[in-house]
Amino acid sequence: MSFFRHRLLRNGSWNLVDQALSALSNTVLTVMVARSVSAEDFGAFAIAFVVFGIFIAVTKSVVGKPLQMRFSGSDSAEQRAAIGRALGAALLIGLLAAGGTAAVSPLTDQGVQRALVALAVALPALVVQDSCRMALFALARPRGAALIDAVWTAVMIVLLMLLVALGRDDVQWLTIAWGIGAAVSATVGLALIHVRPSLRKATSWLREQWDLSRYMFPEYFLGLGATQLAILLVGVIASSDAVGALRAAQVLLGPLGILDAAAVQFAMPEIARRREIDGRTLSLWALALSGAMGSVTVAYVVTLLLIPDQWGTALFGATWAGAAAVLPAIAISSLCSALATGPACVLYGISQARSTFRINLAKGPIIMTTVILGTWTTGAVGAAWALALTEAAVLPAWIITMQRAVKSRDQSRRDPVEQASRSKSQIRTNR
């Protein structure tokens, strides 16, 4: 038992390291591009980064999450075969995304066109690199995932610094440097996994995982998409300052997002590979995970709320006043989201994609309605409390849905056993 706890602690720690490295690489890239190019060119890069985020979300939905949910507990041979097909599907998505991005780029202005063409060159490597991370998590090797993210970050930083030193610090070259870092990282990842992407079997993977991905894909856009659209509407209804206040508060809570992503990336495959666990144990796991995430969130938020105003002003300037006003509500929203982490991980771990989709399907319209009403009445503060109330309203749905799912799972396991027992009893009686 002590070895089991030690392994869980070790894997959880490496998940956290990996998420921190992934966030660091994106932050370093954004900062270096922002410091090197004009505001107009940075806007072009930001558009390319949004496009990248969309395709990564697509790949996670149809490759990464199904791989973790279905094959984390499989034997070695089955895992290797599944990973080969999954990485082939990721490569296919990357190639199609690259072609589509390059085809659309002439319809944009010159700056955005250059950024999109460079992104098209980089997309296959970016998509495969992220899928290698997902495969390493499914293999219970988060240390390997952290390693390839460290390689990506190191190569990218060296190339970016070299380009800046040589005066080739335009968006196109900086984006290609980002892609080269991803290509080197993906190569290391494939070497660690000892599997080659199988393009020939990519379509078979997509067909086989359709029962999960048809829910996972729209769920992403219903969840994250509705929140982002609602925040954009804050700027339309109120002002850009209101959006800035919400964004500043979210940046302050960014470390909690890294921790939450690490917790999900750790817990979901661990649950998926332990298919024999009963519902009561799963509920205890959910309670422990949510309790840990909630405790850390409370401690971190209390620390933030005690920050002196002069420190906040030094960080965010004039935006701090607005950020401080919305911070309590955004903090409560983060706490409710943290408390839902345990039930969500259990539902994903036992492949209940349809159930999680239904929750997010209901959540999207609630966010849009409450944020519009909140912004209309009290601006950014009202919008922040609308986000908090939405997370609080959805939290019971996560808990109840998980309880029903594990109960149904236990019942479906008991029924064949009970039926076999009754049959044996009947045979003895007839004798």
Tally the helices.
Answer: 15
Proportion of beta-strand residues: under 5%
Q: What is the terminal separation in angstroms?
A: 46 Å
Number of domains: 2
Low-confidence stretches: none
* Multimeric status of the protein: single chain
Apparent shape: globular
Question: N-to-C SSE series?
Answer: HHHHHHHHHHHHHHH
Number of strands: 0
Structural Rg: 23 Å
The helicity comes to: over 70%
Structural class: mainly alpha
Largest sheet: none
Give average pLDDT, whole number: 82
Detailed description of the structure:
With 431 residues, the chain is mostly helical. 89% of the residues lie in helices and 0% in strands. The protein has 15 helices and no strands. The two termini are 46 Å apart.
